[in-house]
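Weekly modeling sync, notes
Attendees: S.R. (lead), two postdocs, one rotation student

Agenda item 3: backlog of single-chain predictions. S.R. asked that every request posted to the team notebook include the full sequence so nobody has to chase files. The rotation student volunteered to paste the first one in as an example of the format we agreed on. Action items at the bottom.

Example entry:
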Amino acid sequence: MKLCYRGVEYDYNPPSLEVHESELTGCYRGRPLHFTYVSHVPVPQPVATMTYRGVGYATTPQGKVVSPLAEQLGRQPVFQTVQSTDNSVLKARRHLLKDAAEAHRINMQRSLEHRIQVARSQGNNYLLEQLEAELHQLA
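Predicted structure, as returned to the notebook:
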């Protein structure tokens, strides 16, 4: 098929796919509907070596999962201590986590204080008691 885009002509040959009608049928707005599917579409899968919860595995181009470490080295322990030669990275991460936890605690406390003010203004004593108990648990 000859096409033209901005004055440049080119040949376009769309890929032909072998389509089969499936056994599934349906009804759409009162009319029968027959579903079709492509018989074979190769979908290339990424090949990668990954780790999930401390267990290494790899994926193949066919989409299968294999565990190369278990086959080569025997069974690896799931939980291992982190051995790092650069402790500054671990210290920075620990400091960042502490800062995030502190900011989360402050935000929760502000939210509770606001909810207590609203409960006081509405005169809801039951809710006020619950929120104050929650505030004492937080602090």
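Discussion: group reviewed the output briefly. DSSP finds three helices and seven strands in the chain.
Action items: rotation student to repeat for the remaining queue; S.R. to check formatting next week.
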